[in-house]
Amino acid sequence: MTQTTDTFRLTEAVAKGKQLRESGQYDAAESLFRQIAEQLPNRRVGWLGLGQVLLDQLKAADAVIAFEHAMKVQGPTAELHHAMASAKSFLGRLLEAEAHYAEALALKPRHADFFHNYARIKKFTEVDGVHRSIEELLEDPTYSEQERCHLHFAAGKIYDDFGAFDQAFEHFLAGNEAKEASFDQDHWRGLVDSSIQFFDFATLKRIRSPPRPTADLVFIVGMPRSGTTLVEQIVSSHSDVFGAGELPDLNVISGELTKHSPSELRFPYSVNDVDETTFIGLGNFYLQRIQELATGPAKVFCDKSPNNFFFIGLMHALFPNVRVIHCRRHPMDTSLSCYVTNFKKGQEYSYDLDDIAVYYGQYDRLMRYWDEVSTIPIMHVDYEKLVEDQEGVSRKLIEFSGLDWQQECLSFQRNQRVVATASNWQVRQPLYRGSVGRWRNYARHLGPLCDSLLQQGVPVSFENNTQDSTGT
Known about the structure:
Blueprint: H1 3-22, H2 26-39, H3 44-56, H4 60-74, H5 78-90, H6 94-107, H7 112-121, H8 129-138, H9 145-162, H10 165-179, H11 185-198, H12 201-207, E1 216-222, H13 228-235, E2 241-243, H14 249-259, H15 276-293, E3 300-303, H16 312-318, E4 322-328, H17 331-339, H18 353-373, E5 378-382, H19 383-388, H20 390-400, H21 447-455
Parallel strand pairs: 1-3, 1-4, 2-3, 4-5
Helix pairs in contact: 1-2, 1-3, 2-3, 3-4, 3-5, 4-5, 5-6, 6-7, 7-9, 8-9, 9-10, 11-18, 17-18, 18-21
């Protein structure tokens, strides 16, 4: 076999692996890249691809090993340092991650995404070279809108760290405008209307999954940036709990129901076309998947995809042993935190203040409805009360999850599980009050947001949220 043929086949295999990754076929992609790495152990591309697909599956420790192999065989590159930084940040090894981001920027000092991710995990206390470099790059008209988006969010985060909130907001505003996201307010209202119309009390009672011995599930839901990662970190610090992070499965299952519907109805109306046996099968498939993800034995499994609040009706049909923890935070703080976060994917509403208000209003409306009709236990947890009384609220969380108290749940920052959300820096720190009332720093810019929330019927109190955090 000629070298040219070998190179061609390697290029084909790598392209196939990337295609499998992009389509979400992670097992197949991992198998292919592992085969490349084993057959060509002295080539970087197999190890790099393997590490990336392992990271896609939140196997961050294994990804670090793969990236280390890649560095050994062909030396460090900017891309490898960046990949290693991502993996180590997921593992909570933040100082090491910072060092890798710095190395990546030293090798590629004009890479916008490197700046964005570096700024996201680092607490800046003074103006430094990173800040100056970002400001200089923003003067360059050759950058794409996506690159400018990354740079503006990075600059906004740094100014926020400095306490220069007016300058920070200017950058966040520019970053959100550069994002070019699209959110259909009427479509979202229609989805919530459909759920409320379809899932009345009689329907929820009729479709309720029959009792059977299964693992206990806890879904942690709410608006993004409302404390869902923190709550999962606390609950999963218990030795009998596995925190799976944000799983897309309920959204996928809701789409699958259409395939099982003879009338090809869309969710939620497709629920009427699906029999109990099919729902049991779909529920068991989810349970098997979350148990396979677990890194050890567990009695309770957590899924903290915030947007699963939309699927509480579907949960009734899928799972017999399920609870919901609903995380709440002051609407202004939640909305601001969404607005200043450049999400990796989804959350299209979060790049415009009016869109955020509409999304929040419908979310709030749906959660209030679930409170009225759900037969699944729902516990409401206010972020402000958790900060004020960490042990008291934490004990109630563990009790609600059906477990006995363990003192380790108060030291959640020591939990070494993988955290891949935008809050992965915060949950590695002890609980602090700095995020309570954060919106006040930007009050002069948030009048339109406040007005929009009020128009959506969202109670915007200028005091901290005082709703009962023990309600079920």
